[in-house]
Amino acid sequence: MKTQDVAAQVPPVTKAVAGGLYGAARGWAMLAVALSVFLALLDYAIANVALPDIARDLHASSAASIWVVNAYQMASLVTLLPLAALGSRIGFARLCRAGIVLFMLASLLCAVATNLPFLVMARVLQGIGGACIMSVNIALVRFIYPHAEIGRGVALNGVVVALGVATGPTVAAIVLTMGAWPWLFWINLPMGALALGVAAFALPDTPRTATMPDSTGSLLCVLAFGLCILGGDALAHQQGVLLSSLLLAAGGVAGVALIRRERHEAHPILPVDLLGKPAFTLAFISGFAGFIASNFYIVSMPFMLHDTLGLSSAQTGLLITPWPIGILFSAPVIRRVADRYEAGVLSSIGLGITACGFLLLWRLPVHPGVWDIAWRTAVAGWGFGFFQPPNNRAMMVAAPAARSGGASGMVQVARQAGQTVGAMGVAAFFSLFAIEATHDCLLMAACVALTAALISASRLLFGVSA
């Protein structure tokens, strides 16, 4: 009997094999990954739209309501690596399913919240649930697809990420026209139930490590990331140089202690063993810088469209949409070439196109038309969609199969840490260059994207391939 025929018969729990899954087994497994990733990203995106309503109903200030978003992002980022290590121990599929359950429970708590502190704490739980899902999704893709086709799976995963980001504001607008903001969280229950139902039988049972994650290393990881985020955010918003410096210094000390400790661990929380591989490190830095650039655009562009150009909120949302559309249109192309050519070539081309798109947006005419903005945004989005899959693939294949959890966690750290630093950069620009801040952010986005392209291309110069 052929391997494809065996794999096509989906058992209650699909066993991962070295050559990946085939036929219906692969389709069901990727559907489970897609549904869970879409759930986590959609909820992050839709909360932004509801902030004014949440602040009004819970009698909170606009500044305080921002923590509804920050709590999710911060909880997710600081727990990514510890949870990725836990996934290696208990199984990636089991952690993903646990994440969906926790996400649904937290969504229920968010929906019934009657005050801001309770809602923020529920969002922290939601962020941890989202991190359970996101920390292992690329690792699962590695076991779903055979080695020669990992790029295809990563590209498909990128499409789901783009859809989650793109449809978030639209879903939020539809829900808010029909009901109050708690319904943004109620809708997670049927969506989560569907994702959990498919994940229960379709996700592959992956190899597991023999030891539990290092609890001290996990605590140091949370402290290092958390304190650095708080310090950087305070510095960006000019909330006191002394406090910001103390937080950053404390985060730095925790980070140094983490590195020193993890160097001697067989399965480190912070994968210092993987960071010692040039192919992995250059891909990580390229991804990190790429997401800094993208968030300089994503965070600042709505302000430019609404405040500088005087467009309505609906028009602003419409003119941001070409970014994820560009990402979606790049998927068919990158799926065909991600496994055939080196990431040093493909990702550098993608980042270069993204930089050109941002530069074209920076050079918009004084009174641009809708088409002037839309096609430039689509060019930047297409390049970004072309950059991500081969770069993520390079990180995964540079790691041994036994370290897939650590590699998957670092893929998400590159994304979320880059987005966080980019958002901080925009806040700093708004504080320092109030008049031309939005315009300058686009130039900065282009410069950082070009820098990321050069870092990516250095893989060719140093003979690093993946």
Task: Label this structure with key terms.
466 residues; mainly alpha; Growth Hormone, Chain: A; 21 helices; transmembrane transporter activity; MFS_trans_sf; membrane; MFS; MFS transporter
Mean pLDDT: 85
The radius of gyration is 21 Å
- Overall number of structural domains: 3
What structural category do the secondary elements indicate? mainly alpha
CATH class of the largest domain equals: Mainly Alpha
Helix content: over 70%
GO molecular function: transmembrane transporter activity
Keywords: Membrane, Transmembrane, Transmembrane helix, Transport
Protein name: MFS transporter
Membrane topology: Multi-pass membrane protein
Structure overview:
It is found in: Membrane. Pfam families: MFS_1 (PF07690). Keywords: Membrane, Transmembrane, Transmembrane helix, Transport. The chain crosses the membrane at residues 28-46, 66-86, 98-118, 124-145, 154-177, 183-203, 215-235, 241-259, 279-299, 311-331, 343-362, 417-435, 442-462. Helix content is 79%, strand content 0%. It is mainly alpha-helical and 466 residues long. It folds into three domains: 1-209, MFS general substrate transporter like domains (Growth Hormone, Chain: A, Up-down Bundle), CATH 1.20.1250; 215-264; 270-466, Growth Hormone, Chain: A (Up-down Bundle), CATH 1.20.1250.20. Helix 18 (343-362) packs antiparallel against helix 19. The longest helix has 31 residues, at 278-308. It is globular and about 55 Å long. It starts with a helix and ends in a 5-residue tail after the last helix. Mean pLDDT is 85; it is low at 1-13.
